[in-house]
């Protein structure tokens, strides 16, 4: 097979807190992202209103979206994954009525997408929640937040049911284990028991809004979103193989609950052995039986795992604390490049769940150089995405049902981990640096025209 299916969705993915800016415009409240201006592992800052941080403006997508969407259309996008900023709709999170100015903004955004025949793929919560819910309720550690999230989700479903048919619940839901404030609104030093209780509330909320989506958006589909953290055994020693199974289960657990409707036995044992006693009601168990329609996930890298903890501590690197694979090259940020791992992961998820899959994040962060004539020759990005798309095509040939591919991010944006603009992902260059200098002007990189050709040819122009 050389050609992707005709209905395959081609596009890119962005997140509100990494592109929009306008962080207090039109009645928006503070979010967890706003009080972590140095990234998801950074300290919480008391915002007085006088200081200025990179994400406050980001790339000003809030005001420049018509130009950016026009560029996406020029590339041939058939879909665009965005997130809605929860604090634009419910500024404190617990209001009875939504903020009309926030809803109207996304109306205008969807109008623009519709004009260009680009289908929106909308994430309900992407690495942020209203800061008021953390301050006043303790984040997802408080069961009441389930109710607030349902109100928020139902508001969106009712408002946009005609225009948005593909929804995602929580972005990279398993990331809560590594960045609890970003994921569930808990302090970094929270206990495992506290984090898993908050995660439980989030999983219940996810299932309840899946049910609400089916009621309010009859033609819609709603999926989960996992960080695809595939691990390989560092060696073929049986202990390493079993340790790798356990490590993969740490993140697959989220998919198991959302796709199978119950807590798996291996997780129940983990809770027993770590003295984690969750408060789970019968109503919770009934709610969890409502499963997602499809599985979406991000894929950037793989890593290795070993039962030798001393070796693990000595060797681990990158954002997920994975042991580097000696057979792979790494990006400038230490993320290992493994296209075949994507095919492996696609087959593994398909075999495990037998539900449609959607690659909603994949891309290469790099320091781009602007030449004297203004061109940017990002052949490294072309090579990276080409090789991953070839493996995605192979997985489809293996029998995997794959809905689409949205690259992260199609336009330069602020990175989540350290709130950097220097780490560029886009096919479109944005003239702004980490010190706030630049005109915010957009320009096309070499990869822009390459991706345009790939989409137009339905993947036939990929190089094996």
From TrEMBL:
Pfam families: Glyco_hydro_1. InterPro entries: GH (IPR017853), GH_1_N_CS (IPR033132), Glyco_hydro_1 (IPR001360), Glyco_hydro_1_AS (IPR018120). The keyword Ribosomal protein does not apply. The active site is at residue 361. SUPFAM superfamilies: (Trans)glycosidases. GO terms for molecular function: beta-glucosidase activity. Keywords: Glycosidase, Hydrolase. GO terms for cellular component: cytosol. GO terms for biological process: carbohydrate catabolic process. Belongs to the glycosyl hydrolase 1 family. This is 6-phospho-beta-glucosidase. It comes from Izhakiella australiensis.
């Amino acid at each position: 097979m050389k050609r992707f299916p005709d209905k395959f969705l081609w596009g890119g993915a962005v997140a509100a807190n990494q592109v929009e800016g306008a962080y207090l415009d039109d009645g928006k409240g503070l979010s967890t992202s706003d009080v972590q201006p140095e990234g998801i592992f950074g300290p919480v800052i008391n915002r007085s209103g006088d200081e200025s941080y990179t994400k406050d403006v980001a790339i000003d997508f809030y005001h420049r979206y018509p130009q950016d969407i026009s560029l996406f259309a020029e590339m041939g996008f058939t879909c665009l994954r965005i997130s809605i900023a929860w604090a634009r709709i419910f500024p404190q999170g617990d209001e009875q009525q939504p903020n009309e100015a926030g809803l109207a903004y996304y109306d205008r955004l969807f109008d623009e997408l519709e004009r260009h025949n680009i289908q929106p793929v909308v994430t309900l919560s992407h690495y942020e929640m209203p800061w008021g819910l953390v301050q006043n309720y303790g984040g997802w550690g408080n069961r009441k937040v389930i109710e607030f999230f349902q109100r928020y989700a139902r508001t969106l479903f009712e408002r946009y049911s005609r225009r948005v048919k593909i929804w995602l619940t929580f972005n990279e839901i398993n990331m809560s284990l590594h960045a609890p404030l970003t994921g569930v609104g808990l302090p970094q030093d929270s206990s495992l028991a506290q984090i898993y209780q908050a995660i439980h509330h989030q999983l219940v909320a996810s299932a309840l809004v899946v049910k609400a989506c089916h009621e309010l958006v009859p033609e819609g589909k709603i999926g989960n979103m996992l960080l695809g953290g595939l691990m390989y055994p560092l060696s073929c020693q049986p202990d390493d193989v079993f340790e790798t199974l356990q490590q993969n289960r740490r993140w697959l657990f989220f998919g198991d609950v959302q796709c199978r409707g119950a807590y798996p036995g291996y997780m129940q044992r983990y809770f027993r052995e770590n003295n984690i006693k969750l408060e789970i009601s019968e109503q919770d168990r009934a709610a969890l039986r409502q499963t997602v329609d499809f599985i979406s996930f991000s894929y950037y890298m793989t890593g290795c795992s070993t039962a030798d903890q001393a070796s693990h501590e000595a060797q681990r690197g990158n954002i997920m604390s994975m042991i580097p694979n000696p057979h792979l090259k790494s990006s400038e940020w230490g993320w290992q490049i493994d296209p075949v791992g994507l095919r492996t992961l696609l087959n593994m998820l398909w075999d495990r769940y037998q539900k449609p899959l959607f690659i909603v994040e994949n891309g290469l962060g790099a320091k781009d150089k602007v030449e004297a004539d203004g061109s940017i020759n990002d052949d490294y990005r072309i090579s990276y995405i080409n090789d991953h798309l070839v493996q995605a095509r192979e997985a489809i040939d293996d029998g995997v049902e794959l809905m689409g591919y949205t690259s992260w991010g199609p336009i330069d944006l602020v990175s989540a981990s350290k709130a950097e603009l220097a780490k560029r992902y886009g096919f479109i260059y944005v003239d702004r640096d980490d010190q706030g200098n630049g005109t915010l002007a957009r320009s096309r990189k070499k990869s822009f025209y390459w991706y345009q050709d790939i989409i137009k040819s339905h993947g036939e122009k990929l190089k094996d």
